[in-house]
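Protein modeling request. Please complete all fields; requests missing the sequence field cannot be processed.
Requester role: graduate student
Desired output: 3D structure, token encoding
Chains: 1
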Amino acid sequence: MQSASQSQIVRPKRAPLARRKSLRIFRMAASHRRNMPNDVMLGVVLSFVAGAINAGGFLAIGQYTSHMTGVVSSIADNLALGLVGLVGVGLTALVFFTAGAACAAILINWARRHARRQQYAYPLALESALLITFGAIGATLPHAPIMVMVIAPLLCFIMGLQNATITKISGARIRTTHLTGMVTDIGIELGKLGYRKVARLAHHAPVIADGKKLGVLVPIVLAFFLGGLVGAVGFKHLGYGFSLPLAALLLALASPQLRPRMSRAV
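Delivered output (266 residues):
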């Protein structure tokens, strides 16, 4: 007869439930099956990456590439001043940002029909590869004038690709490469919160703020700021190599969906 100690089954220690849950959300961030935690996780990570690329790109070429409002305004200004060369630079940035967004739409729509599980992983993997390319170009062509002509369109393409990807994933609720709309929405919800007391005193119908919306938007805005800080510091100390950890982060999001699914035994 076995002793009580021998009969006991030694089970491996399991990670705490909260940790397992957060890791699962990270692994499922690029899944084709969407829910709010997945969308927020992916939005925060992509916003961090966009902020880092935007800041690092500015230090590299003296130009922001993540939002097109300033680009379109500069095209109009330079056109009025007769600065045709700068108009061409702005138009190139606009065209490549648009091309990146179109590329994301093509990849996602193709995958929905041929590889549904990978529909959101493909754009993230492509963005990872392009960030590696960005780092390689910077290491190969340091301080060459042609480098700016190549890097600026490349970064604009990456930003268009990323913004269109999260837009399609979240049903246009989340954008990651610019903050104007999100900061506006945060202000609206904060205004609702501030008006509650006024409405109560004036006996008006109550105004209800969307706390869930704030819970999505605020972390994304903070992630963009943090990414900008990390990107600026990273480029200062690592140069173009700062793009490699960002590429690895994106690949970590995409890889669980890119791995072939194991077939179940019959």
